[in-house]
Please model this.
Amino acid sequence: MILEYIMSKASQENFITVVGGHWLMPTPSNKVRRLSMQSSGSKQGNPTKGMDLSQVRSLTVFGSQDRPLPFHSFNNGIIQVLDLEGWKGLTNKHMEDICKMLVLKYLSLRRTEISTIPSEIEKIQDLETFDVRETNVGDLPKTFGNLKRLRSLLGGSKKSRKALKMPQEKNKVPMKALRVLSGIEISEGSTTAASLDQLTRLRKLAIYKLNIIEGQKTFIDLCSSIQYLCSCGLQTLAINDVSSNFINSLDSMSAPPRYLIGLELSGMLERPPKWIVELKNLYKLTLSVTVLKTDTFKLIQDLPKLFSLTFTLNAAKDDRDIVDILEENKQLDREIIVPPGGFKSLKLLRFFATLVPRLSFAVTGEVMPTLERIDMQFQAFEGIYGIETLSSLREVHLSVDNQADEITKFLVEDLKDTPKYLDKEYVSKWPKIITV
Model:
């Protein structure tokens, strides 16, 4: 009811015009300034027919749609926001029209079929946010470096391990306005690693793919650039490293990246960096499941602001290297124990990995006193024990892969059925088990 009232007032005040979806909004009598096109699930005709779109400043689409875009009706000299996420039918040909929108500040092509960015993109000199995540865009044109006002560049896809290659030329005038650089690839011989240290205002750096050789120039340049950026105020660092051993070299940094509030190290990580204990402002931490061991919990348990802790790794179920590492991580009693004490601010604990070994929470002492939710996505699972000792735990979400074996399925069902065997006084304390 509240949403319907807001929509009605927005229409009356000509604040935003919504077409499609389940909203039956009257055709505006005034010129449309902000247009929202929503998927209706029906093959209706042109929903913008009869509307004056010459004054549209902002276009946002919701849902997966295949109807044509009304580019011909826009005034390219005034449109500033173009959010086309998920729009089916958007092709490289449409980029010709988009590159004519010279005052565009926000452009999202996320989850569209775009695969190529033309060199004419440099004409959009006011562009501040450019989002090509989960598209087929793998390279950017050399002219992209001329966008001096760009603040956020978002590309690649974590799920499919796709990454975005930056232009292979070192700009005479660096993109110093850049604050967020996410989803990029760094390969041996590229100039990207050496160019990063020019981005002194960068606050988030996410590298989705590394193809470099230890000891070579690119490897050394990347180490140097990341260390320098961390001293300049980098707040979020994410690196997915499957084979280059780069994330293990971070342990040798001469000074801890004390400004970090978010850290993600995925891949064949041998051990967490020792300087991690000095990150007093760290809020979100993601580590490879290869360091899922009791000692890791002991190392990070005193981080005062840690809110979210995730262990993750994409690997095949029968990857012997991963299986062997997880076996080595277990103590003599064949399980990983979360010790009591510490984790005073932790509310979310997550495990996103093909294999999740047996995990137990200590039955004595205070364990993760503020933890409210556990999320687990896996194909093979050896069980989780002692959750009744977590005083604040409310929900446990288990996402089980379709290819999970019978033992894993049995352990999940057993966890769900546990309340049936508890005394009444303990049933109310048992967290809600949700399976997907």
About this structure: Residues 39 and 63 are 5 Å apart (CA to CA). Residues 217-231 form the longest helix (15 residues). The first strand starts at residue 17 and ends at 20.
